[in-house]
Amino acid sequence: MALTDRWKRLFSAEIRRRGRQYQTEGRVELIEPEPGQTVRAHVQGNEVYTVALGSADDATAASCTCPHFERGAYCKHLWATLLEVQQRSRAGSPGAGGAALHVLTEAEAPPLPKARKREGSRTEVKPAAPEWMDRLTLLRRAMVDRSETAAAPITPATVYYMLNASLTARCGSIVIELRQRQPTRSGWGALKALRLDRTTREQLTHTVDRQILAMLIGASPVDEIGYEHAFNDPSRSSMFCLEPAAQRTLLKRIIETGRCHLVGESTDRRDRRGDEIGIPLKWGGDEAWDLWMIAQLAEDEGLAVTTELRRGEVKLNATDPEVLVGGEQGVVVIDDEAWPLNDHEARAWAEHFRRERWSAGDGAPIHVPVDGVSTFLDRLYALPQLPPLDLPPGVGRQQRYVEPVAHLDLGATLRNNTPATFWFDYEGRRVTPDSPGRFIEGDQPSADLLLRDRARERDAQTLLFELGLRPEPNQGPDAWTLQPRQVPGVVGTLLGKGWIVQAEERAIRAAAAPRLSITSGIDWFELHGQVEFATDSGTEQVALPDILKAARAGRKMITLSDGSTGLLPEQWLAQHGLLAALGRVEKDHLRFGAAQAALLDVLVNPEELAEVDAKFEELRQRLRAFEKIEPIDPAESFRGDLRTYQREGLGWLSFLAQFGFGGILADDMGLGKTIQVLALLDRRRASMPELAEGDKHAPCLVVAPKSVLFNWADEAEKFTPHLRVATYSGTDRDTLRPHLSEYDLIITSYGILRRDIAELKDFAFDYVVLDEAQAIKNPRSKSARAARSVKAAHRLALTGTPVENHLGDLWSIFEFLNPGMLGSGTRFAEAVRGGASDPSRLEAAQQAAGALRPFILRRTKKQVLTELPPKTEQTIVCEMGAAQRRVYEQLRDYYRGSVLGASGASGGTAPTSNGGAMIVLEALLRLRQAACHPALIDAKRTDAASAKLDALLEQLEELIDEGHKALVFSQFTSMLSLVRKPLDERNITYEYLDGQTRDRKSRIDRFQNDPDCPLFLISLKAGGLGLNLTAAQYVFILDPWWNPAVEAQAIDRAHRIGQTQHVTAYRLVCADTVEQRIIELQDKKRQLADAIVAGQENLLSQLTREDLERLLS
What we know:
The chain is of the alpha/beta class.
């Protein structure tokens, strides 16, 4: 038995996972064991821990110096050591110091102890307890630890919050002193200091007190502020200086308790016990008081300068309030009310006058003699902080507020850095952010004083930080820098906010929203437009094609005729990038085909259209009817009832026919797409004149996967018996071909269509319908070319996954439905493909979604089938045994070297082209096979152990015993063959279907109707489409597929109309293998394709080196 197999049950799955991570990261260092030890190691965790294994006399021993092990738990360090020992033993690697590593035998591999007694650094092992008992023990200890505080007795004390005016004045921010009263038999006890710690907080009765005290813990205790009296105060740990940036918010909440009192020199109030209680505080309101500097004429014609508080018409001497603290969250206490205070960043003035009041007792004003007024005012204006100034008439200069204009001047890029200079323009006066003074003086002594907007300047600096610029103080106070790739985005944002930006002394101009017009030709439409840039001499207009050409070339700016730089309208281009992909650029316009008119209407914002001609306007009005489609009833000859959503689908299909458009019916699997199309064709037949026997007309052609041809024939016979139906397949095709016009509906397969396209392409059909239309996702495939060659008046596509691999799939389907609608396939793919991490591509995908929405009808089961039973999807994680793990790891190591070596040779990107892509494909295929069964790697190993097969059989036996039915899907038919062997040995009846299976209908009927046939083994690709298998309640996916939509199709063979039981789907995944990584990558890469309907991008085409390392880890 392998070493880890013996110990495995003693470690939780999470501990094993983390231990494996430690071992993989190389954190385990095997060192020389001490006497009596078999293994000794250092493991790097939060610190270096020592792990020891061995035998002492007859008692085995194990230890780790980490706290987790000391608490009686099995730690990740011990598991990492076991993994390292096992790996070295297999590889025959030497241990520490080059000595041969001793391989632990089963006898030497002891179970970890539950009960331990310490003897030095060793731990003796006693018989191990069951794992459940150990886990309960750990939980109990954790609960005891966490409940120690909660178990302390709740105190009914009442908390009082004392705003200490004296300490507040000295500290410069609000100081709160905590006091409490305890209840007594006769009432309430004395008011005492409340010293704050965690236990105190948890014991309080009121939730609001616990919340406030929790916030006070983050404030500064007064003894940390450095005032001598605080150090000498025995209750200093009960006083807290509120954080200036939050003091107003917290004080308001404290006051709302009704237990906040002001204590100070003027509020010496005491209760009957003699305890100082001060005066209760109220919150006055949220309208702030403003701090002003007031200069009045003195008797000697000089100035008397003081500060004043103003709120509306109310004025108050700034030295009168008991409490006044400035800053971002300033507060002023007037009588028994607290108010917000706006000190205009001049709190030093308020503090100066308040200190004068505290020291002199009256806060006397500053007296300036008449001969010193001019000098006083000059120096006053130069101070860095000054509140609004109120001067007597005729004294000093006029003050004016001017809104500053922010400037950013970009220099030449050097060493991958673009230097920038940041400054403000105040009516032609240049000011840098670090310039001192609240006022800006003009060139003349009599010029007005311009009041700086410090808040706006600060906001501008914050914006630069948010945009990624960084200051360069060594280069000067106005020097900043940014990366060249950031320039277009930064410039666009700043211009949009009214900044002026220059590049190497040339102005950069922002573009106005383009003005567009649409004109019509015989079978085309032309989009004309200009983008306007404001210049010093007026405006300059650039034709829309020139803008689009520059954008396609990757440029962000263009040079205007006056030498300045025009910034391309990046946001507009992102929103309308699909226009360039769909239209053909001509001299001064874009040309679109008639089939693209509907897309043009959706992609162009009506507000940007200055003019449209009558032909296009008529089409626009007709297209508006798409939003008003009403459900319609099937013909009287239709046998069966359509649900409401199916009647709506029938209305949509009929409306498409009226317009001559093709469309995709993309309902979820199992919602009856086949029935809706049959209802459409039956209405078409019923609307035609009665045909005599042998009369000919244009029939409808349905092309479907071979596996579902019989399903179409059965459904047509059941619901539309009046339709004359022929199945075009087999050896009698030549006989049937001359008589196709005598039928209403011809059913054939993609393979037959490819084979007989030369004979069919000149035949005129009324409808051609592609079922499972993702079969033509590759536009260069023979199936896609053959489908496009068929002549038909109307075209439809049915698929639950129109985007199966990447958004380019849509182009191929729409080229079949409405040729030319999506323009060039290459340019469309360029516009929408590229990854969810590219915002512009995601924007293009969302544009495509909006533009194509009228032509794609998709309803999910959740939306329309409220009566459908629920579906549960679960993942069963299987732990491979030692032998299977060894096969997997050998393959992983081999391919890791091959794949990542190729990646390194390609410059660090994933080798996903030509030969490199084949290496990746082979590696991923082989690793997935090894995770399923060793026999998929070596056919001779059919008797080898497989974790998945064991887990599957265990589940199946239980389900069969309970009388349930199940579907088992695998991509690998060889895996299904391995499943069949034990089923045959156990005499379990089952059906089987893969790509080679004949007479599928009888096999499906048997599974659906025979209670003695509980299992259906199905190849994922052969049976994942078009089958109705509602007899099954359980679905097993043996191997995860790259595209979750394929798995969803398989699951929906059971979860569909007609299902009455809860459906449970299980995905079997082996732990720590490529399968888990595939699931992670599916989630990571899903976003872009979700912008249209469902599915995800082609994973292989987007794999990065990081992805490959993750897959092969």
